[in-house]
Amino acid sequence: MGFPWDFRPLQGERVRLDLLRDDDLEPLFAMQSDPEVCRYLLYEPRSRAQVADVLRRDAAATRLENPGDYLQPVIRDADGRFCGTMYFELKAGAPDSTAEIGWILLPGARGRGYAREAAGLLLDLAFGELGLHRVYAELDPRNDASVALCEALGMRHEGRFIEHMWLKGEWTDTGHYAILEREWAITRGRRA
Fold first, then answer.
1. Where in the numbering of this chain does the N-acetyltransferase domain appear (predicted)?
2. How many Cα atoms within 13 Å fall on the side-chain side of residue 35?
């Protein structure tokens, strides 16, 4: 296992995963205050002050070592523009070796493959350098774009928890998708 792992930028063909920085406040606020973006998230649209606190907290999350450690890197396009954020949390160390992955995009960055490439960079890290066995995503199954991304990444639909949580005034389901290291190797082989 490659722990501890200290964050360093991850470069893809069209995107780069980088740490949050102070000048990301405006696009982060635009994303996290948008009711449509927040529709399937666990939180309501946030105020500027809340987003500033989130930026400070998440910018400081730079190391994966123990269960509960997480990263919230920014997805930047080839020109360095903020497109969204990824989420990657170490859930269990050896021998279970599991992490959770997630993503949020600005509306203008959707449909361009940025989230797929960014998630691929994190899955390469997870199953390569970090030596993890399993990565999963939990999402609202009404979020068609996230379901499609999970499927495009080769993640398996493992289940749907009916009325799993009371959220934003209603009972909501939770969809569970996952991929194992050996499955990612096959998916990467098909895409290469």
1. 15-186
2. 1
Nearest Cα to 40, choosing from 191, 156, 146, 114? 146
Six-digit token string for 158: 């493992």
The string of DSSP letters for 72-137 reads -PEEE-TT--EEEEEEEEEEE-TTT-EEEEEEEE-GGGTTSSHHHHHHHHHHHHHHTTT--SEEEE
Q: pLDDT tens across 134-179, in order?
A: 999 999 999 999 999 999 999 999 999 999 999 999 999 999 999 9
What the chain holds in terms of domains, given with CATH numbers, is: 5-191 (3.40.630.30)
Please name every residue paired with 100 in a beta bridge, in sequence order, or none if there are none: 89, 136
> What is d(CA 13, CA 71) in angstroms, rounded to the nearest whole number?
21
Measured distance between the N- and C-terminal CA atoms of the chain, rounded to whole angstroms: 25
Whole-structure pTM over 0.70, yes or no? yes
CA dihedral over 114, 131, 189, 140, signed as positive or negative: negative
How many Å apart are CA 91 and CA 134, to the nearest integer? 10
With tokens 């859930």, the residue in question is: 91
